[in-house]
Design a protein that fits this description.
The chain has helices at 4-20, 36-43, 64-70, 123-128, 152-157, and strands spanning 56-60, 76-80, 103-110, 130-139, 164-167, 184-189, 193-198, 225-227. With 228 residues, it is an alpha+beta fold. It has one domain: Fumarylacetoacetate hydrolase, domain 2, CATH 3.90.850.10. Helix 1 (4-20) crosses helix 2 (36-43). The longest helix is centred in the first third of the chain and has 17 residues, at 4-20.
Length: 228
């Protein structure tokens, strides 16, 4: 298990590449996380670079195809930084992006915290704490030259590939009785290319992915949005 100083050093290395738009092959061996727990310990220091409170959370690798693509064995949580929020209708450049992808999301805004407890929360309990549903877009990225080769602990350390995101206006209709797994989603690029999907792509049901991950524990007490 990494000690606190090595975790901070690894985080500073990754954040430096994030800020500079550069990349690395892998975290140096002496700082490299060997487990998901090590990865989250490194990730926890990403907030050291932020001048704003934690904006929220994302969950990466929430489809089997996505997990196979980046060679991980399950979802991974990451922190959303306020500095990386893009206004609705804004423009971003993907010139330095390695992933070059935009993901259409369901974003859940929590109205009250769910304190840590030894037993898992049921979906109904989690959704009961949600104050609103928002359409969203995530533009993830990685600080590794080959993000498909480094494995889950290093990807988690790299903030689970978090980068830019857009949060839309809250859904005004009553969404709680809507089957989000069957909800159709369409994305288009310049009106020329069209891509279709549904909420079921999120490992069967996007509501299930709002639950805390079994190998993740947060020291932050006021998450606003837990995405995907």
């Amino acid at each position: 298990m990494l000690d606190a100083e090595k975790a901070r050093a690894a985080s500073r290395l990754l954040v430096g590449h994030w800020d500079n738009g550069t990349s690395l092959d892998a975290i140096p061996q002496q700082l490299r996380p060997q487990t998901r727990t090590d990865g989250y310990a490194i990730q926890s220091h990403v907030m050291d670079r932020s001048s704003a409170p934690l904006f929220g959370w994302k969950i990466a690798a929430t489809s089997l195809a996505g997990q196979r693509h980046i060679n991980v064995d399950g979802p991974m949580a990451g922190r959303l930084l306020a500095e990386k929020a893009v206004e609705v209708g804004g423009a971003v450049s993907l010139a330095t992006s390695k992933m070059r992808v935009a993901e259409i999301e369901f974003a859940f805004r929590f109205g009250r915290p769910l304190p840590p407890r030894p037993t898992p929360y049921e979906i109904a309990e989690v959704i009961g704490a949600v104050a609103g549903l928002h359409p969203a877009i995530e533009i993830p990225d990685s600080r590794y030259d080959d993000f498909c080769a480094v494995g889950a602990p290093q990807l988690i350390a790299d903030n689970a590939c978090a980068n830019l995101f857009v949060i839309g206006e809250p859904v005004q209709e009553d969404w709680r009785d809507v089957d989000l797994a069957k909800h159709a989603v369409t994305g288009s690029v310049l009106g020329k290319s069209q891509y279709n999907g549904s909420g079921a792509a999120v490992l069967g049901d996007p509501r299930a992915r709002t639950q805390p991950l079994h190998d993740f524990r947060s020291s932050d007490s006021t998450p606003l949005i837990w995405r995907r």
